């Protein structure tokens, strides 16, 4: 039997009111982080502004660098003084300590987020596990 797992995103467990889809856990991936992020039009929620190293919110300090792959819609990623327009057909890498924020305008935006800690075996952050609840601890 082939070692294949396939599921539609809308059949997967989501958190943060549907913003965060637990793709890695649903597919049984163990080597790297993999989530879908769904941002509605005019998105303005605390999730968007974050880093994964050196923050005062301990559950986010898992030191993962991330690659974002836009799947649909458009958004602007703000990283320091730089603004990157995100659209399908591209990818962007962000270092763990880099604060980043995602802004949407008049249309929803969906992206794939892929993460891992450089040079280390993958260890899934607890919030990415199935059944972890709708909100991260302390949020």
Q: What shape does the CA trace take? A: globular
Q: Give the fraction of residues assigned to helices.
A: under 10%
Q: Structural class given helices, strands, pairing? A: mainly beta
In what order do the strands lie side by side in the largest sheet? 1-2-3-9-4-7
- Helices, by number, come to 1
Count of DSSP strands? 9
CATH topology: Jelly Rolls
- For this structure, what is the CATH class? Mainly Beta
Distance between the termini: 42 Å
What is the beta-strand fraction?
A: 25-35%
Please give the CATH architecture: Sandwich
Point out poorly predicted stretches.
Answer: none
Radius of gyration: 15 Å
Biggest sheet descriptor = 6 strands, antiparallel
In terms of quaternary structure, the protein is single chain
Instruction: Tell me the name of the CATH homologous superfamily.
Output: Jelly Rolls
Give the integer mean of the pLDDT values: 89
What sequence of helices (H) and strands (E) makes up the elements? EEHEEEEEEE
Integer tally of domains: 1
